[in-house]
């Protein structure tokens, strides 16, 4: 099956009953420190994902992620939680309401400049929720690629069209 064109690779899902683990492996030309700033700082996260406030940057610290996009009902996700893993410039892990455990593992790319980002999201929910999250994370990683290239997301232009396309594509692929 032909997949939609995307600047980021598709994620995968493994499910056991209502527990889902989503994985993405992404490669960016920017150095680890630049990608770290995007996934693990209050200044970087809003350019592609969510406002983080509060955000206490150490294991055990409080975090609340406030998504800037909305669902089909116009509701934005607000996800309070905790920083559950922290290794500056290498590991940022947040366990939050709604989205469960969100883990960013950063490494220099093998034999090349840039960064390899391994992302894992573990949560409980329905198969429909799994598809929603696969499409949602994929779409946000497209925003991350743009933000790293100097073009953070202008949230006033947000709509659900691309998310719907990605969700249908993941469903057709049997994810």
Mean pLDDT: 95
Strand content: 35-45%
User: Strand order across the biggest sheet?
Assistant: 1-2-8-7-6-5-4-3
Q: Could you name the ranges where pLDDT drops below 50 across 5 or more consecutive residues?
A: none
What shape does the CA trace take?
A: globular
The largest sheet is: 8 strands, antiparallel
How do the helices and strands follow one another from N- to C-terminus?
EEHEEEEEEHH
CATH architecture descriptor name: 2-Layer Sandwich
CATH secondary-structure class = Alpha Beta
The CATH topology name reads Alpha-D-Glucose-1,6-Bisphosphate, Chain A, domain 4
The tally of beta strands, per DSSP, is 8
Note the total helix count. Answer: 3
Domain count: the total is: 1
Radius of gyration: 15 Å
Structure write-up:
The protein has 175 residues and is an alpha+beta fold. The chain is built from 3 helices and 8 strands; from the N terminus they run ββαββββββαα. The protein has helices at 32-39, 127-148, 161-172, and strands at residues 12-16, 19-28, 50-55, 62-67, 78-87, 91-96, 100-108, 115-124. It has an 8-stranded antiparallel β-sheet, with helices on one face. Strand 5 (78-87) and strand 6 (91-96) form a beta hairpin. The protein is globular and about 35 Å long.
